Amino acid sequence: MKTFEKIFRGKISHKRIDKYVNLVLKTLDPDDYYDLELHLQDDCQFIRIEVWDRVLH
User: Fold this and answer.
1) What is the pTM of this model?
2) Higher pLDDT, residue 4 or 55
């Protein structure tokens, strides 16, 4: 399992958050499962992306 975390301080546009999330998702295998967690507040935004690798049996 891989975890990507990022904290944006201050007022950040949603386009910048989307750009970060899209860059992380481009680095992943399309078959991997991921969970995206966002905490949006006035003074900071916290993003956590947890990735589970797909296991072939």
Assistant:
1) 0.78
2) 4
